[in-house]
Structure formats: C-alpha cells, structure tokens
Amino acid sequence: LHFSRSLLCQIEMEEAQQPNKTETPGPSGSTSEPDQTSSTSGISRNWGWMVSGIICINILILGCALVSGSAQNNAQIKASDLQIFLIILLLLTSIWMIYYIIYTAREENAVVYRDGHAGPVWLRGGLVLFGLLGIIMDIFKIASYVGYLHCESTVKIVFPAVQLVFISIQTYYLWRHAKDCVQLQKNITRCGLMLTLSTNLVLWMAVVTEESLHQTTVPDYSDNITKLYGRNLSINHHSSCGIFKDAYYYLYPFNIEYSLFASAMAYVMWKNVGHVADVHNQHKIKFRFKDVFLGPVVGGLLVLTGLVTFIVYEIEMKKSSADTVKKDNALMMHFIMNIVILTLMTVSIVIGCAIYKMDHRERVSEKNPTRSLDVGLLVGASLGQFIISYFSIVAMVATGAKSYLNRLNLAWGILMVTQLGLQNFFIIEGLHREPFHEVHPATVIANPYTLQPQKELSSLEASHMDTKLSEVLTAQSLPSHRTNHRPKRLWKRWVLKEICVFLLLGNIILWIMPAFGARPQFDHDAETKFYNFSMWTAVVNIGLPFGIFYRMHSVASLFEVFLTS
C-alpha cells in the first residue's frame, strides 16, 4: 500500500511539474502548436513509473502465491518449483545489475547527480556484513545438500549456488551505486530497480515462511490442550540432517535482514531516477562517540544480561524432558527480562521527548525519499508487533490473568505497546530535526584608532593605544569568550546521544531474542487456548517477521538520529 500510494503521488508530481503549453500566444496574438517534446517527455516518464510498478506488483503477487502454495505439505506445488521461480528471478536481476554497472561505467553522463542522503556508509556496511553471512549460509546449504543428491532434487543445490552469486553481485552494485540519480535510460532503470526490489521481497517471503514453519511445527498431541513445546519435534527432526543444516538455520535472520536492506535501497534508487540532487543542501555529519559513556555502558550490560537469560531460556525450552516447573521458571525469567528492558527504554524515551520540547532546532523542510521511506517502514513494521501485543492483551484480560505467567504476559504486552508508540514518535521527531551546528558568537574587536574629527594623537597616546589594541586582540582570541553561549546546547546534545545509544543497544537485544528462536507466544499456551492454534499461529507468523524487522530498522534510524544529535 505504501508503494502504491508513493507511485501515484510520484505520477501526480510529474504531471504537476509539466508546463502548460497547450496554447502559447505567438507574436501576432495567435496561438502556436503545443510543445511536442515536453509532452512526449512527460508521457515517457509516466509510462516508466507505471510499467515498473506493474512489474513489481505482478512479481510480488505471483511470488506470494507460490510461497503460500509450497508451504502446504499436501499441495501440488513443491519447494523445488518455488526455487526454480526464484532462480529465474535471481538470474534476470543479476543480468540487469551487470548491465547497469557496465553501462554507467562507459557512459559519461549516465549519473550526473548523487543523493547524499541515500545509502550512508553505515547502511552499506550493514548490507555487506549481512551479505557475507548470507553467502556463508548458502555455502552451508550446498554442503548440507551434497550428501543427499541421490534422494533430493538437484535444484536444492543449484538454488543456493545461484543465490550466492546474486548476493555477491548485488552487494557490489548497491555499495557502488546506492546514491545514483540516473539521468539516461530512465525507464529501463526504473523497471530494473523494481525487478531488483520485487526479487528481494520474494526472497524475504520465502525465507520468512521457511523459518516460521521451522519454528512452529504443529505438535501431534491427542487433546491439543497441553503446553506447546512442539518446536522440539522440529528441532530434533532437523538435527538428524547434519551439522550444516543446524548451522544455516541460525544464519537465517541475517539473510532476512539482507533482503530487506537491499529492497529499501533499491526503492530509494527508484525514487531518485531522474532526480536532480541539491548538492549544496547536504550536511556532512561526522561519526564520533565523544562524551558518550553512560548509554553504551548501561546498554551493553542490558545486552549482556539479555543474552544470558535468552540462552538459558532456549536451553530449557529445547530439553526433551517434560519438567514443567523448570520451563515455567525459564518463561518467567524471559518475561521479566523483557519487562525490565522495555521499562528502561520507555523511561529513556520520555526523557528524550522532553528534551525535544526544549529543543529549538528547525525542522527539515527538504523532501528526500530516504527519510520518507524510513518513516513509512518504521510505522508499517511496528504494526506487526502491535497486532501480536494487542491480541495477547485481549486474551489475558478476557481470561482474567489469574496465573503469574499470565500477569507477566499482560504487563509485557502493555509495555510493548507503550514503548513502540513512544519510540516511533521519538525517532520520527529526531529524523525531522536539522543537525546540531556549532554556533560561535560574532567576535567584535574594538578599534582604538577611531578618533573624533579634528583630533590628533601624540606619540605617547599612540603608543598607549597600540598596547591597548594588543590586549583587546589577545582577550578576544581566548576560548573562554567563545564558550559562554554553548553550555545549554551541549547538555541537550549529550543527553540525546546517551539516549540514542542506549535505545540502539536495547533494540539490538530485542531483535536478537525473537530472530534467533525465542517463541514465548507458543511456549506459553494461554493465547493458543484462547484463540486456538491455527488462528494464533497465523497472527504470530504474520506479525513477528515485521516486528523483528522493526527492531533492526529502529537500530538504523536511531543511529541516524544519533549522528544528527
């Protein structure tokens, strides 16, 4: 929906920018013919936007249908059929990216402008890191499937090999060209970028579906009312396939984030096709952790404690023994840890919002697609976690939240909703504020040689004034006279930096836990009993991938807010 609205707005903007030259008065007062060149150019631009949008929507819908069909065990669509479709997409996208790289290298005026806001180095660095881990995952997949060639389809080996090549080409392509504002072959470029975007989104859907099925295999219980520790069945089943299969499942979260990073960068490039960037209005912001101490220390301790509790929780959940007391204690520890994290983050955000009220920085008036995409993805991705939390709150309130686990679950849901709303406000406000600038007061130097008219200087007076001028210049050059106006701004900057770093680390641990297998939504059976297994599984498997992406996207956005602070 965000993409479709953006497409329509872009077409309307293009039409609004076209000059109305239908009837232009001539020298004799008559009307001349319409400007055919301008009209043709406008039609060509609109054609490019529409065709590229149609390509993207069709690929996404077809891919969604194939992913959904292959997820059913009794369906006629096999996993190999989906992989053949993905191989075709990967090959087409790779060919187009190679063509783009060669064409822009040979054509001198293909890329005249570059958007300074698009593809910052830290975002491209994250893409490279996730890409390397995705390549390692593909290597593990190939090693895992080689031993099963006699009973498995050859496509299972070909697909990770093709994906490995695709990740390598795409990572280089986005690292070099993420800032491009293409001025030649604009329609072809728009279509190619929409192909790139849709390919990455279909890959994301396929990996998320496979990961969800891996985590939520339906347990074969006779009455289906006992606690759902059924993910043990899935894990034990997969562990017999070899150590490589266990290894690449733990690399899935990085591959998921890689696809989303690449999709976002391709979308910004698509918006920048034909865009004339204003190079004079781009701020160069330096990255430094100067004077930041409390946020990294407290946030680091939070991450470390969260990792320890998460590991203990996962160990207890994966044990085959049905010791419900230990499992309940592990669940309680997990709930309490999440409640502590969310409480500390909420308090920090409230302090940050209060500072924004006292902050008199101007709001950014310049429009750029990167910031619009950041805000859209932030709000849209948070809806996934909002849905899960509100479903949990309704289930806990309806059942009375009688047990201590239910009460903890209710508190977790309420805090999650509060933290998400406040964090969205804090990040959006930060992204729309102008960066802090060092403002030095104007230096006024007294001129002792300025005399009243018709006055003369004696040699003694002149010597005295030379000494006085030297003293004035020395006094004006002292740093103490320049720092009188800075303390108020400095403490605001310091507090905002501390809050941004702390929230960044908090979002990292909140990403790690669900991304690497924490599923309290299934380990605690209250919602499953209330909604039934199939409905609750649909809610979690749809909402959780967006919630996981929200945390990683929040990390990127908070880093941007930190830089402007």
From TrEMBL:
Keywords, sorted A to Z: Cell membrane, Hydrogen ion transport, Ion channel, Ion transport, Membrane, Transmembrane, Transmembrane helix, Transport
Domain of life: Eukaryota
A Pfam entry, by short name: Otopetrin
Keyword Nucleotide-binding: no
Membrane topology: Multi-pass membrane protein
Renumbered residue ranges of the record's region Disordered: 17-43
GO cellular component assignments: plasma membrane
UniProt KW Hydrolase keyword: no
Places the protein is found: Cell membrane
Transmembrane spans: 47-70, 82-102, 122-145, 157-175, 187-207, 249-270, 291-313, 333-356, 377-398, 410-428, 494-513, 533-550
Family: Belongs to the otopetrin family.
Protein name: Proton channel OTOP2-like
Organism name: Mastacembelus armatus (zig-zag eel)
